[in-house]
Amino acid sequence: MRTIVTRPVSRPYRSTALVSIAVLVLLLALLLSACSGPFQTTPGSGIPAAIAAGTREVDFAGYRGTPQSLPGDMFVEGENGAGVTIADGYEPFAGVYRYEGDPDARFSGFAAASEAGSSQVSFAIRERGEADLRNARLFYPYTNTTRYTIAGFRVHYYVEVWFVGVRDNRIRLKYHTDTSGFGDIDDIVSTPNPRLAEYPVFGIGFAVNGREAQNRTLVQTEFLLPSDQQLQPGEKAWFRWQYSNGVYDDGESRSALGISDIVIEPIIHSERSSYYHHSTRAPGWPGR
Q1: Dist. CA 154–CA 171, nearest whole Å
Q2: 157: which residues sit within 8 A by CB, 6+ positions away?
Q3: Which DSSP symbol is given to 193?
Q4: pTM of the full predicted structure?
Q5: Residue 119 and residue 174: Cα distance in Å, rounded?
Q6: Rg of the chain's alpha carbons, rounded to an integer?
Q7: What pLDDT digit, counting tens, does each position of 165-215 carry?
């Protein structure tokens, strides 16, 4: 019978072994620390996750042409011919508008526009008419929920036409750090009526399906902010879409223009490198 005999390790030897183990652990930690750099996202770790978390997609599927059904914290501004604003009780909301092929169909004010039988909904605007809406604006508040400085944005959306009026009209996008003072801010982008090439239009105009390719324009724009206006963590700014006159601004019949499929993606500024980082897989971004 074989017996395995174990002997107590003397205290001096045990102490030496513990010291050796501690030294090995320390060396391993230093080695891992020195080697970690090439395997991290450089420059600035966590930026792809921050871009994904900071990307906003606005879906109008639940919008029903009422202020209560606007998605998220979006809100509108406008007034009537007497100068009464929406904040003061003026209600230019037209409810749901469904295009069913009738060329004479139209609405005025703010509406939820869609093709009959479709679940895709657009935020649509048509000034004047029965609602007598003027100075129509759509706001989206954006808060920097990341831990990084936002140095700019990439914005994607469609501009659609649902009624081709005698006036072509256009949609202008602006960005500001306040809800007032937009009049002094330059446009980020101004998008004409998708059917502008067919103007001038005579008579009262005609209704079209805003979801058809010839009736919508894809807008993709990118802009950087001045260094003193970059959005810090926790700060808020506003995107504003403005309905305005276009090239043909004579006549009573105005066009109905829609906005849909909004995606707002932050451009992150990395203090470690002064590089601007762009996501390559932002959800909803065409072509990705």
Answers
A1: 17
A2: 219, 259, 260, 261, 262, 263
A3: -
A4: 0.80
A5: 28
A6: 29
A7: 999 999 999 999 999 999 989 999 999 999 999 999 999 999 999 999 999
